[in-house]
Design goal:
With 107 residues, this protein is mainly α. The protein has helices at residues 2-27, 44-55, 71-105; strands spanning 59-61, 67-69. The model has no long low-confidence stretch (mean pLDDT 89).
Length: 107
Amino acid sequence: MISRMLPLLIVAMMRRAENGIYRQLSDANAYTPDSAIALSPDRSVEQKRLQSLIRGGAVRLNANSRYFLDTDCWSTYRSNRRRQARFAMTIILTLAGTAIALLLALR
């Protein structure tokens, strides 16, 4: 049971870390290089999500090693993530439906 829940727990932790990073930057009004703030993620999942957000362009790093939120890229990043999740769910549901159809056909 726990092994089946593990992927969901990991996704929830990733979402929580991303939302925490967003909240920190948003609460500090860190939307430009001049208003950028220092971030020091405590957990490894937060560090990984921060690096992913930087690679995705949603969070920017300025010359002083401070971070700020690129709101346009954040919206695009989140939209892409939702589209990927919908695609993955479509694949999973298609495979599950095919498996059920095969099982019923073999009866």
